[in-house]
């Protein structure tokens, strides 16, 4: 079977799945270790039975509803390839906006200290460290399984000693050991209302519930961040949080306007997606 024939057959097998064409290309390129150029230039090349069987198995997983990112075991984010599996959220393009904002801010600070809370795959904290080498970055993640993935990403994208990873619960910062004061506290915490979890797309439901469930109104983690974590922010420090639709204004109200200047940023779809707070100098 040629690559072109396999590609057409694969498209037929995923008929009816949103984004099938893109998923098929991703799966074939991963299985064959092909670049996009390789894929385009080798449509008439013969594919071995072994590789065809591997692609068939991967397509069957996609047909069952498993996200393509988990099938190939990785996903690109802000210029790096992150390992992902069912224990971590899949990095989203809109989160790159948050990283870019924070990176730009940190470049104005000498030797900044940064916390990435609810780190998951580590895509935020690792990206910030990669592009602000002078920064000290501490990532905190509760899930032991997610910590394994995050550690692998630290090693592969940075190096084992370039970021500090803590396996702990941010609801109990006093149990995380001695923490410094931070120039920036970043978080993309769980923010889906508990009652809405089961209404999510089937692919999203395969992502870890721990990373999705934000409590009854979706704001449990933001109340925690406002109540327990601002004492770890420097007198002129900044927080930067991602949030769900229609949550930004509610989150803004959790922070004393006399203490913080709070700004709301939009994502690529013009949705209020990020809450940025700068502590006012006294």
Structural notes for this entry:
The chain is an alpha/beta fold and about 280 residues long. It has helices spanning about 5-15, 20-30, 35-40, 50-65, 70, 95-105, 125-130, 145-155, 220-230, 250, and strands spanning about 75, 80-85, 115, 135-140, 165, 180-185, 235-240, 260-265, 270-280. The strands form two sheets. It has a seven-stranded mixed sheet with strand order 5-4-3-6-7-9-8. The protein has a two-stranded antiparallel sheet with strand order 1-2. A hairpin with a 2-residue loop joins strand 1 and strand 2. Helix 2 (about 20-30) packs antiparallel against helix 4 and helix 6 runs parallel beside helix 7. The radius of gyration is 21 Å and the shape is elongated. The chain starts with a helix and ends with a strand.
Indicate the proportion of strand residues: 15-25%
Order of secondary-structure elements: HHHHHEEHEHEHEEHEHEE
Q: Main sheet?
A: 7 strands, mixed
Number of strands: 9
Uncertain spans, ≥5 residues at pLDDT below 50?
none
- The shape, in one word, is elongated
Q: Structural class of the helices, strands and pairings?
A: alpha/beta
Helical segment count: 10
Radius of gyration (Å): 21 Å
Alpha carbon gap, first and last residue: 71 Å
The average pLDDT score comes to 94
Placed side by side, the strands forming the largest sheet appear as 5-4-3-6-7-9-8
Task: Please give the share of residues in helix.
Answer: 25-40%
């Amino acid at each position: 079977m040629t690559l072109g024939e396999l590609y057409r057959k694969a498209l037929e097998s995923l008929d009816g799945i949103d984004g099938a064409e893109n998923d098929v290309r991703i799966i074939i390129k991963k299985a064959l270790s092909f670049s996009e150029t390789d894929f385009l230039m080798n449509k008439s090349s013969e594919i071995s039975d072994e590789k065809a069987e591997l692609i068939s198995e991967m397509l069957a997983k996609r047909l069952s509803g498993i996200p393509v990112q988990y099938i190939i075991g990785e996903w690109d984010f802000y210029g790096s390839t992150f390992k992902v599996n069912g224990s971590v959220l899949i990095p989203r393009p809109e989160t790159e906006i948050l990283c870019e904002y924070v990176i730009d801010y940190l470049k104005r600070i000498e030797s900044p200290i940064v916390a990435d809370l609810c780190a998951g795959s580590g895509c935020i904290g690792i990206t910030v460290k990669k592009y602000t080498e002078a920064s000290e970055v501490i990532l905190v993640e509760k899930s032991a399984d997610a910590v394994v993935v995050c550690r692998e990403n630290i090693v592969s994208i940075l190096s084992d000693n370039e970021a500090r990873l803590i396996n702990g619960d941010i609801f109990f910062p006093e149990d995380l050991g001695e923490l410094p004061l931070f120039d920036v506290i970043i978080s993309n915490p769980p923010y889906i209302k508990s009652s809405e979890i089961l209404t999510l797309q089937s692919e999203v439901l395969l992502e870890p519930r721990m990373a999705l469930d934000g409590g009854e109104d979706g704001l449990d983690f933001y109340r925690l961040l406002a109540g327990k974590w601002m004492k770890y922010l420097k007198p002129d420090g900044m927080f930067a949080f991602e949030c769900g639709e229609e949550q930004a204004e509610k989150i803004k109200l959790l922070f004393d306007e006399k203490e913080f200047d709070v700004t709301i940023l939009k994502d690529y779809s013009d949705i209020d997606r990020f809450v940025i707070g700068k502590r006012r100098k006294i």
